[in-house]
Structure formats: structure tokens, C-alpha cells
Amino acid sequence: MEWLYVMMPIAGVKIFWPGLIILGVGVGIIGGFFGMGGAWMVTPGLNILGFPMAFAIGTDIAHMAGKSLISTMRHGKFGNVDYKLGLIMLVGTVVGFEVGAQMVMWLERLGVVDFYVRILYLVLLAIITWMVFTDVAKKKKKEREALAAGKEVDKLATGLDWSKTLHKIKIPPMVHFKEAMIYCSAWLPIMVSFLTGWLAGILGIGGGLIRMPSLIYFVGCPTHVAVGTDLFEVMISGLYGTATYTYKGRTELVAAMIMLVGAAIGAQIGTVATKYIKGYGIRIAFGLAVVGCMLSIIMKLIPRWVPVLKTPMDISATVLILGLVACMSLYIFVQMLKGASKEVAQKKAAAKVSIAQ
Q1: Which residues pair with 13 in a beta bridge?
Q2: What gap in Å lies between CA 29 and CA 275, rounded to an integer?
Q3: What is the DSSP secondary-structure string of 16-63?
Q4: Can you tell me whether residue 112 is helix, strand or coil?
Q5: CA 55, CA 10: separation in Å to the nearest integer?
Q6: d(CA 342, CA 16)
Q7: Which of 37, 57, 63 is nearest to 204 (CA)?
Q8: Closest CA to 256 of 37, 108, 91, 87
Q9: From CA 237, how far away is CA 333, in angstroms rounded?
């Protein structure tokens, strides 16, 4: 089965290339749908496939930059991108990203980068999982209470209302963001982007994993605008990250190109799917994907304390991460087909009514 493996010239490791293709296509769909580069799955995925963590980070950033460009263009056509908000957030993103990248180089010199990055991933994923499902639970509770009181359900209501509190902070300059439909201090998105950029530089992600929920819960963006605006940010930070990690010699361009071929196709599918799956449907699917990713990282940590389980845990983690990507991608693809078919049927029915009249 030697033909299923390809040597990576810079990292110096042999990699299961079908796994790279599965990650590329699947994460292209998932990234376009959730509004992120999908690095929260790809970085652990590349590490599981055999890349040292520093190379997994650099390689993933390189592949996601091009894919996010394609997704951003598609979302822009749907009016899902607030470019003013994205450009303002660039200030914090670039500074935070470089601080995080320097910390990775420091941890690599100490020889502890793999362990600490995985632990930070676990903590972050656990927090995001709690935020998403707490938000969904509170939203459903509000809907039940409204129905019980005989009131109309507010479709714009959210479970977590942190953004409303943060909008009360009136530190100049105050800015109005048209597409996001919010008015707040410019310092709010700048500080959010700095923190997400810092974590992005450490974890090797475009920031989408944390920026998309941050845009929703802290900045107050509608879900579909958060998706598109986040992809715009992922594109910019990804291009910057590719440059800085390539300069540091931690980018495996062969693997990035293999993944990008599939990701370019997948990103188109995922982006179009957001037209048919809105709001809390996106958030619930996102939360389930985060849980699966968290389990795969735990499997990779277990052999540190129980060495005899290294082989079965490595195999299980690989199957889980690739299976998660495949199943989530299939779900999004099927929902897109159903939505498109329904839309076509409605247009045909409308056309018949128009002709009859």
C-alpha cells in the first residue's frame, strides 16, 4: 500500500494522500457553510495524519487562504459580507496573529508545542460548545415562554444577549455597520479580532472557529452576516499567516496544493448551502462538529499517559476526524440539494400561476 503515501519534502514525513483529499473537499464544504477556513478540523487532522504540529499549523493556513477567497466571493454575492466591519477587525487580527505565531516558535524551541496546543484546543472547543448549546437552549426556552403567553415569537431573539450589554460601551469612535445592522464602538470589533487573531496564530487557524461565534455573541452580527464577514477575515489573515509561516519554514506547500484542489469545489457547495439553512440550523450543526473534533484531540492525548494505547488511539482519531468531515459534508450537501429542489419547485409553481392569470 506504499502508493497511498507521498513524501512531504519540507516536513520530511510520509503522508496518507487520500486523507488530504478527504480533508480538502470536506473542509471546503464545512468551511464555506460555517464561515471559517475549517482549520479547527484541519490542523488536528494533519497532525493525526502524521505532520508535526508546527508544520500542520503552517500547511493548514496556506491551504485555507485560497479556499476562503472563493467562499468570500460567493458570500459577497448574497450580501452576507460586511466589508467595513471586516476591514476594521484587520487591525487587531494581524497584530494578534503575529503575537500568537511567535509564541508557537517559542514553544517549539522548548519541545512542548504539541502538548500545549492540544490542551488549548480542548479548552477552547469546550467553551465554544458550551456557548453554542447554551444559546440554543435559552432560545428555545424563550420561544416556549412566548407561545405559552400567547405572544408572537420574536424571530430575531437570541439565547445569549452579551452583545447588547457590550453595545452600551460608548467609547469613540462609534461606527454603524450597514450589513450587520449594528451600531457600536470601533474598539469592540478591534479587541475581539485581537484575541481571535492571537488564538489563530497559536492554533494555526484563520480565526473562524472563534471569530464566527464571537461576531454573533459579542459583536451582535446576524448568523449569515457573521459567516460571510468571518470568511473575509479568514482570507486576509490566512494570506498573512501563509507568508509568516512560510518565512519560518513551517509550510508544506505540496500538501496545501493537494487539499486546495478539493477545497475549491467544496467551498462553493458549502457557501450555497447557507442560502437554504439559516440561523440556528447553522449553529446546532457547528456545535456538533466541535464536539467531534474535541473527542479526536482527547484520543491523541491519551497515549501520553497510557503509551500502550498509542496505535489504537491514533487509528481511532484518524477515523473519527475523517468520518466527521465526511458525514458533516454529506449532510450539508444533501440539505443544499433539498433546498435548491424546493426553490425550483416554488418558481415553477409561481410561473404556472402567473401564466394562468
Answers
A1: 8
A2: 14
A3: EHHHHHHHHHHHHHHHHHHTS--HHHHHHHHHHHT--HHHHHHHHHHH
A4: coil
A5: 9
A6: 39
A7: 57
A8: 37
A9: 27
> Do 295 and 323 meet the contact criterion of CB atoms below 8 Å apart?
no
CA dist., res. 178 & res. 182, Å (int)? 7
Residue 193's identity, in one-letter code, is S
Q: For 14, which DSSP code? A: E
| Rounded to 5°, angle at Cα 22 from 21 and 26 | 115
Q: Considering only CA atoms, which of 118, 119, 86 is closest in space to residue 206?
A: 86
Phi, psi of 152 (to 5 degrees): -75, 135
- DSSP annotation of 216 reads I
The β-bridge partners of 15 are 6
Q: How far apart are CA 295 and CA 299, in angstroms?
A: 6
Phi and psi torsions of 185, nearest 5°: -70, 140
| Interacting residues of 339 by C-beta distance below 8 A, sequence separation 6+ | 273, 275, 276, 277
Note the pLDDT tens digit of each residue in 260-286.
777 777 777 877 777 776 656 666 777
Largest CA distance in the chain: 76
- Rounded CA-CA distance 154/152 in Å is 6
Which residue type, as a one-letter code, is found at position 336? M
221 three-state secondary structure: coil
pLDDT band at 248 (very low <50, low <70, confident <90, very high): confident
C-alpha cell at 70: 472563493
Query: Does residue 182 carry a pLDDT above 80?
Result: yes
Residue carrying C-alpha cell 453554542: 132
For 107-129, write each residue's pLDDT tens digit: 878 887 777 777 887 887 788 78
In the chain, where do the E strands start and end? 5-8, 13-16, 174-177, 182-185
CA 208/CA 71 separation, integer angstroms: 13
pLDDT band at residue 33 using 50, 70 and 90 as cut-offs: confident
